[in-house]
Design goal:
The structure holds two protein chains of two kinds.
Chain A: E1 12-17, H1 23-33, E2 74-82, E3 93-106, E4 109-121, E5 127-137
Antiparallel strand pairs in A: 1-3, 2-5, 3-4, 4-5
Chain B: E1 15-22, H1 25-34, H2 45-50, H3 60-74, E2 79-87, E3 96-109, E4 112-123, E5 128-138
Antiparallel strand pairs in B: 1-3, 2-5, 3-4, 4-5
Classes of the chains: A mainly beta, B alpha+beta.
């Protein structure tokens, strides 16, 4: 397995501004997950379930200049820190960077891990979510 | 809305009432579309097999959404602050699933009262397919 090139860390590979959040998308997301309880933030207003933010996929899923051995991997896990809730009409921006690259040796050998971080903010520049996606490569 | 819970109501070791469900192929496809997860593996058995998988699979993000739903139903009026998941096995449609959790810690902090939970999504046979942790912020007592 080639040496890890850590020069990618910190590189922003996607920056996407999305169309305003629509009520029909929030309702469809809730229906698809069976979510019926209103959020604590809700009141009379429609507020998206916290994990609604996972649908904010930018144009690029990962940097286009990654080496071949870091292109096709398995989704090993996800960690999301939630900020302010997503409301109908919000204009959300997602900025994605390579947050970390590391190796781990276990019973089945050495694997590489790539952590992609996406920071989502709203039109008031408030932080909505920080999502870390861990990809595993054998 | 169901009455909100507060810090004294929950002790460490509290079991989160489990969600028991079986996701249909259509439900998984519906989620993949609204979550903008275009991979064929989430759409049908045939497309998944072309990718070398045994059949259609449930997106990891849908497992996260089910953890979120579990906590929202168990702890109404609370705010999910953090959620993490480790994907250990393939989650498939048309398989009985049990999603459950347990409160492992509780804290009073400057930012409010918090519960820490361990979460698991497992098959009816007990295979732990997704494990996770969550931090849940409780409403401040008035």
């Amino acid at each position: 397995m080639p040496e890890i090139d850590r020069s990618f860390i910190g590189e922003e590979f996607d920056h996407t501004v999305f169309d305003p959040v629509r009520s029909e998308d929030v309702l469809e997301y809730m229906a698809a997950t069976g979510e019926t309880q209103p959020s604590a933030h809700a009141g009379d207003e429609l507020v998206a379930p916290p994990t609604f933010v996972v649908r904010l996929r930018g144009r690029r899923f990962m940097p286009s200049n990654l080496p071949k051995d870091l292109r096709i991997g398995l989704d090993a896990g996800k960690d999301i820190a939630f900020g302010v809730p997503v409301r109908v009409g919000d204009v959300l921006t997602a900025s994605s960077t390579v947050h970390d690259i590391f190796e781990k040796t276990g019973r089945t050998g050495t694997m590489k891990f790539l952590v992609l971080r996406t920071v989502v903010t709203n039109q008031r520049d408030q932080q909505v979510a920080v999502m870390d996606q861990k990809m595993m490569f054998r | 809305m169901t009455d909100a819970i507060h810090f004294p109501d929950i002790d460490v070791g509290h079991d989160v009432p489990p969600l028991r469900l079986t996701l249909s192929s259509d439900q998984v496809r519906r989620y993949a579309v609204i979550a903008r997860m275009p991979g064929g593996r989430f759409m049908s058995d045939a497309e998944a097999r072309r990718e070398g998988l045994p059949g259609q699979i449930v997106p990891g993000n849908m497992s996260l959404a089910l953890f979120s739903r579990l906590l929202n139903e168990a702890f109404p009026g609370t705010n999910l602050q953090r959620l993490s998941a480790t994907f250990r096995g393939l989650v498939r449609p048309d398989v009985s699933l049990i999603i459950s959790g347990v409160v492992t810690e509780k804290h009073r902090t400057d930012h409010g009262d918090l519960l820490e939970c361990d979460l698991v999504l497992e098959s009816a046979e007990g295979d732990r397919l997704v494990t996770g942790t969550a931090s849940v912020q409780l409403p401040t007592a008035s």
